[in-house]
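Consider the following input, taken from an annotated entry for Reverse transcriptase zinc-binding domain-containing protein (Mytilus edulis).
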Amino acid sequence: MSSLKFLNLNFGNANSTHPVWDSVEQNLIEIRKASTKVRMLTGTYMVQADKHKFSQYTIDPTCLLCHREIEDILHVLTQCPVLCNERKEYFTPIKQLVTENSPPGTWELLFNNTLAATQLVLDCTKYIKNLGFKKELINKLETLTRHFCYKTTLQKIISSEKARRLTIIIKNWMVKHRQ
Ligand SMILES: [Zn+2]
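Applying the prediction step yields:
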């Protein structure tokens, strides 16, 4: 998978800023949120599938949170059951914005699969013609997807830490009860 798979390289011209940055207010927290999204968008957001590849296949690519599937960016944003609360909270208004402001049936036609939904979240400019969004709506969508990426990442860190601590507790318990 190319690391720039989700970035729409055909967007705009040399003088226009990509909406992922253009929509960001000049405050530190929003810039930080945008950086998380940019890392996802450009393939520099480290997931287990990347660690697996970079470790010459010695690191397990399975998601450390749910242990159900390979963890790639699609899994993080659209599949991982451990992150379902964030998905429900932040993805619902994204769907609502698209449904309310695009031609009838657009959502069902375009975004009812995980790859397209991920593309919409990471770089909506690929669908600009289908959506018919002007700058104001693009910025709204960018803000929602930026928050979604950031909150999901935050929860992923919290859940990983919980899982790590639980593993230590279980290991210690097993050592203690072996004697
Ligand atoms: Zn998972």
